[in-house]
Design goal:
- This protein is of the alpha/beta class.
- Helix content is 49%, strand content 13%.
- The chain is built from 17 helices and twelve strands.
- The protein has helices at 2-19, 29-32, 35-53, 89-106, 151-154, 157-167, 179-185, 201-207, 233-246, 248-258, 282-293, 301-308, 312-323, 327-345, 350-356, 362-373, 377-389, and strands at 60-63, 66-69, 77-82, 111-117, 121-124, 130-135, 143-146, 172-175, 193-194, 212-213, 219-222, 225-228.
- An eight-stranded mixed β-sheet has the order 5-6-4-3-7-8-12-11, with helices on both faces. A two-stranded antiparallel sheet has the order 1-2. Strands 9-10 form a two-stranded parallel ribbon.
- β9 (193-194), α8 (201-207) and β10 form a beta-alpha-beta unit.
- The longest helix has 19 residues, at 35-53.
Length: 399
């Protein structure tokens, strides 16, 4: 913290001296400064004040009901949440709640949250809720998270420029849901691997071909860049960041406070069903419908391409572009969905279900379930049976 404080104080002093190099420093600064310079001066001073006001950390770490002394005090990190008009309130509230509970579980201030916008002031979000914000140019968060919402407002050049500038002042960059679109507009995602809300994955890939979008992930970490899928996946992202910062035990404690699983791994699939995908072109739509209706057949790329009246290469590119998933991944998901229904509603043996939905054997289906749901089919069946016995149970079952 001392180093950061010294750096910002030096920048502020150098800025003032630049206007009037002779003592008393800054005497002529007001007369010479234009409005842009005044704003920069105010921003630098705000950073200095913010760093100066950070509360000294406590030296004890409290987790799982036990107090253990921390040999090195933990400095509170500033987490900034950037919002635009039309932001999704749950994309903001979920991660904020997770970071806030981290401090309560640890017994010390681990994170300081700031809600930011381009110009500061009230910013309207979903459901008619407005939130007070700070101007992003006046702060330098350790982690900057772009909150999802309406894509059109966040694509405005002024919003893109504000986030691009702020990215140079933060050590970790993240987005929730469609916030990935704003980060992509800055060019910072080029050659990176990301995820976003499944419904917009196809559109994202078409808009930003230099970015690799993995629509089958809850969240993706690529270096200092973190992106998450839609809505509640922001909580998973926050838990993963807490774990990266402070360890798995604290992340688990926060998950228990939030009454969510600790934690859906980044590679676990989003809740979205492939059967709900709506490709733009009739060719891909016909191929997807054919796959759904012929799960027990050998659904190779060649066979699906033939149905779509395309070459194998054309079909693979078009399918990925319009759905955000590869044909093989989509077929696997369709089979998992079909098996999931039978697990929930029937009592057939696992081996029989595997054959009925097109898997080669039960082991292949088990691996597919772990890829998609994070747990094997037997565990999912037990959860559904347990819930059926206890209809009032608050257990959260991943569909």
């Amino acid at each position: 913290m001392e180093a950061a404080f010294g750096q910002k104080m030096s920048e502020f002093i150098e800025f003032v001296i630049a206007y009037d190099p002779q003592p008393p420093y800054g005497k002529a600064a007001v007369d010479k400064a234009d409005q842009a310079d005044v704003e920069r001066c105010r921003a630098l001073l705000s950073c200095v004040i913010e760093l100066y006001r950070r509360p000294p950390p406590r030296t004890c770490f409290v987790a799982l009901g036990a107090n253990t002394c921390n040999p090195e005090p933990t400095l509170a990190q500033i987490v900034g949440f950037y919002v635009c008009s039309g932001h999704q309130i749950l994309d903001l509230a979920g991660p904020i709640g997770a970071f806030d509970l981290a401090g309560h579980s640890a017994g010390q201030t681990l994170y300081q949250m700031q809600v930011l916008s381009r110009g500061g002031g009230l910013v309207s979000g979903s459901a008619g809720v407005s939130i007070e914000t700070l101007a992003i140019d006046a702060v330098a968060p350790d982690t900057l998270i772009v909150v999802g919402g309406d894509i059109l407002p966040m694509s405005a050049p002024a919003e893109v420029d504000a986030v691009r500038r702020a990215a140079t002042r933060t050590s970790r960059l993240a987005s929730v849901c469609t916030g990935t679109f704003l980060l992509a507009e800055t060019g910072l995602l080029d050659s990176k691997r990301v995820t976003t809300h499944w419904e917009f994955a196809g559109e994202f890939q078409r808009r930003y071909p230099r970015v690799t979008v993995d629509a089958d992930c809850i969240f993706v970490a690529d270096g200092h860049l973190w992106t998450s899928a839609g809505i509640t996946a922001g909580i998973d992202l926050a838990l993963a960041l807490i774990e990266a910062d402070h360890g798995v035990e604290l992340a688990r404690a926060v998950a228990r406070q939030l009454v969510v699983y600790h934690r859906r791994s980044g590679g676990q699939s989003q809740f979205a069903a492939v059967s709900n995908m709506e490709p733009e072109s009739d060719r891909i739509r016909i191929a997807l419908t054919y796959a759904r209706d012929h799960l027990t057949e050998d659904l190779t790329i060649a066979s699906l391409a033939d149905v779509a009246k395309l070459s194998g290469r054309q079909f693979t590119r078009a399918f990925k572009r319009e759905t955000g998933a590869t044909p093989a991944k989509a077929v696997e998901r369709l089979r998992v969905e079909a098996a999931h229904v039978r697990l929930r509603e029937g009592s057939e043996p696992i081996e029989l279900i595997a054959r009925m939905v097109g898997f080669v054997d039960a082991e292949r289906m088990r691996r597919a379930f772990i890829n998609v749901h994070g747990q094997p089919p037997q565990a999912i069946r037990r959860l559904h049976r347990s819930n059926a016995r206890s209809p009032g149970s608050p257990t959260r079952v991943i569909p």
